[in-house]
Amino acid sequence: MKKNYKPYLFLIPVAGTIILLDQITKAWVSSNLALGEVWSPWSWLMPYARVVHWYNTGVAFGMLQGQNWFFAILAVIIAAAIFYLYPRFSEDWWLRLALAMQFGGAVGNLIDRFKVGHVIDFISIGNFAVFNLADASITVGVFIMALSIWRQEKQESRSSSVIENEKTENPANGSMTASKK
User: Fold this and answer.
1) Helix (H, G, I), strand (E, B) or coil at 128
2) Which regions of the chain are under pLDDT 70?
3) Which residue segment(s) compose the domain that 98 sits in?
4) Active site includes 112?
């Protein structure tokens, strides 16, 4: 059976770019800041946004700490599922983008879990939890996916309404509205 590699021509560059940028930024933070050290290019920016070298053995917002191997296995399963199912979504560009972003983010954090035993986080905005580019990619991917699914359902609903209106306006199109006496 011949496999179709065409859909992956979008997934690989998008996810690869995310993984590369994620790993470069994490390497920069790890080599330039001690764990817990904070840096900001301008002092006035410090209360709003800063770079801080932090790590996470759990999931988003620091929940479920100490479960690194569980989340590593989960990330492998999720990345494998996305990779396997990705060709089935070749018609919806936005959904493909969302899945590519989620795949790239999952693999970026998975590399950390295997390489250093935890995920390296460094983006700190206001009082929000510290995160990284992979986390941001996953979050934006989920948001795009939700919008894509919502848009698709709205189009399908609109299409089915048009078909129903055509059937009631023109019974000759396939539905009978009343029997003859």
Assistant:
1) coil
2) 1-3, 60-64, 160-181
3) 8-143
4) no
Angle at 137 between CA 126 and CA 155, to 5 degrees: 115
Q: Specify the pairing of strand 49-56 against strand 38-39.
A: antiparallel
Report helix, strand or coil for 25.
helix
Please indicate, yes or no, if residue 171 is contained in any of the structural domains. Answer: no
Torsion over CA of 55, 58, 59 and 62, rounded to 10 degrees?
-60
- Write the pLDDT tens digit of every residue in 86-96: 988 878 889 99
Region label for 126, one of left (φ > 0), alpha (ψ between -120 and 50) or beta (otherwise)? left
The answer to whether residues 105 and 135 touch, using CB atoms and an 8 Å cutoff, is yes
Instruction: Determine the pLDDT at residue 159.
Output: 73
The SS3 assignment for 55 reads strand
Q: Kindly name the residue from 22, 92, 112, 121 that is annotated as catalytic.
A: 121
Question: Residue 106: CB partners within 8 Å, gap ≥ 6?
Answer: 75, 78, 79, 82, 134, 138
Total domains in the fold of the chain: 1
User: Would residue 131 count as lying in a domain?
Assistant: yes
Q: Report the pLDDT value the prediction gives residue 1, as an integer from 0 to 100.
A: 45
Q: Measured between alpha carbons, how far is 57 from 12 in angstroms, rounded to an integer?
A: 27
Query: Active site includes 121?
Result: yes
Q: Are 48 and 126 in contact (CB under 8 A)?
A: yes
Q: Which pTM does this prediction carry?
A: 0.80
User: 3-class SS at 84?
Assistant: helix
